[in-house]
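yo

u said u wanted the structure for the complex thing, so here. seqs first:
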Amino acid sequence: MNLQAEIPLHYMIVLSTLLFFIGLVGVLIRRNLITMLMGIELMLNAVNINFVAFNHYLYPHRLEGHFFALIVMAIAAAEAAIAIALIINIYRKFSTVNVDDVDELKY
Amino acid sequence: MDYSYTLLILLLPLLGFALLGLFHDRLKPMMSGTLGTLNLVVITLLSYYTAFLYFSQGSGESGYTAVKAFNVLWLSFSESLQIHLGILLDPLSVMMLVVITTVSLMVHIYSLGYMKGEKGFQRYYAFLSLFTFSMLGLVVATNIFQMYIFWELVGASSYLLIGFYYERPSAVAASKKAFIVTRFADLGFLLGILLLSFYTNTFDFTTLTSVDGVAISTPPTALFLGMSVTTWAMLLIFMGGAGKSAMFPLHIWLPDAMEGPTPVSALIHAATMVVAGVYLVARLFPVYVLSSPDSLEVIAYVGSFTSLFAAIIACTQLDIKRVLAFSTLSQIGYMMVALGVSGYGGEEGLGYMAALFHLFTHAFFKALLFLGAGSVIHAVHSNLMTDMGGLRKYMPITHITFLIACLTIAGIPPLSGFFSKDEILVAAFEHNKIIFAVQWMVAGITAFYMFRLYFNIFWNRTPVFHHTPHESPTFMTVPLILLAIASVLAGFVPFHDLVTSDGKAFHTVFHWMIAIPSVLIALVGIGIATWFYKKQNSIPDQVVQGAKRIYDIVFHKFYIDEIYLFITHKVIFNFISQPVAWFDRHIVDGTMNLIGDTTVYGSNLIKKMQSGQIQWYIWFFTSGVLLLAFLLLYLN
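structre next:
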């Protein structure tokens, strides 16, 4: 069966846009640092969908988009490790992971 | 002939200053005094050697030629604006080298005795070295800009020396006055230099004063307020010279400068600094006489007026150093007159030669007078002639040398003052009869006030001394004797063969018609002084009572100081300085404060945005990105 005939490109873009904004809203309104981290991961994955989709639909004979998606995943993994290490340190210092209470760096 | 060693004449005093100044506390007072004096002995010998070499090479057909012993490019701004530093040797500067080093050496030796035990003895010698350095640099300058640099150095070092007793408020005030007045005059000098060099494209003296140079052959003809630019430039330059040489109306600093130690007065106010103005005019003399005779006329009248004015004031002063200060003003007036009435070349240049001749002889006898006065002050611990009298019994050497100096300045033949003053009178007679008459009268007044001084110190009544006066130590009497010998013999130097306006020797004729009246009026002056002051009597008091009003005006120096105070304090302070200060405080500072305050206020308003709330930051960032994206989409 022909995937391109069944599912057009703009479906993919709508999906990734939705995913991106869900992630963004998560980062903006959730107070829990770990949930904010999850929002960031969602945004990264929305980008990944774009990469793969454009590569597949527009340049089927090339592989750069796929590789980029892989690199983003690797970076995301590293970033998650660092972020969680930071969050653990914040928790040790402030005894909370609520982002509103972590506001020492200000005027 | 290789003169490159003359660099040492400049470097040694500078070295002396650095050494004595840097190590002043580590050196014992006598040690630093001896070092400074020995240093100056070397410099003096070098100067004599230079003079011997220079004058013994002979003048030749075209006269003595100027030699640049040393010249380096110091600042090179552009093709036409280049400033050199160097050493120029010509009859004028070589003669000045001899005068300055001789008098400075005498003062150095004399100070070993006079300043003994003073606080800051080492500092004193360091300053003397600095002053000698700046003065020597001034006279050997190859260009007018270098001269200006050393000119200012002379001003600064004289400030230091006049204010040597800085714990005394009057000395501080005097040093400030001297500095400010001469600095004000130097403003004119600087403007003159800029004007002259702008039109002639050169600073160099040799180029400026050469007869076929731009300044003389094709002087700029641009007019400003009805006078040519050259005349303006030369008058402004003369303003600088008038400030240093204390010509009326910039003379007010010189009498006050007597607050400095007496040997300093001898050095600065007799032989060196105050003749810098004469030297300046003489240095640029060809420009003055050939392209701007009008300004030379002004110089003649200013000099003549100053010499009369100062001589009259000198008759009434009681402080012996002030009498000598006004006498210096008067004698420098003579020199200016001589320059002012002179022509160029050959016998026409008699005035030029006479001015420098008088500078030469005056340096010796005036230094002698000041040092003699210092010796007297040293003995009686007072400057006032009312505290003196009858000192001839106690101080024979000072008495004899002082008498010789008084006879010299009065112009009694065959002492040196007679010859130089006579040449000036001849030059004035040939040029301008009015000026001649004034100078002839001044010669009589000079004789009168000098002998008034002499009799009041050494004859007249003997006051009650706190302790018996005694002759000064050897360090002080030796320079007196040497200078007395110089004062007697200096008149026999054949100046018309050595220092002339165009470098060529000429013959002078002795004019009995001038010499006899000038000696006569000097004798009359001496006679009146003898009648008035030799024995204590009431004649001077009667004369003073008879012309009380005039006497008061003259005694207060024609109230010139008061006029200056009125102008500066009442007029300038109230109508210029205070509005300017108000403007500065309120408008200039106000603008700056407004900018500062607005910034602080604005930042207080928006600083809350940096809240530490990360989600707000993300929100601003995201909205910004989205806004930009929309803008790009819709504006394209």
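DSSP finds 26 helices and four strands in chain B. The radius of gyration of chain B is 29 Å.
cya
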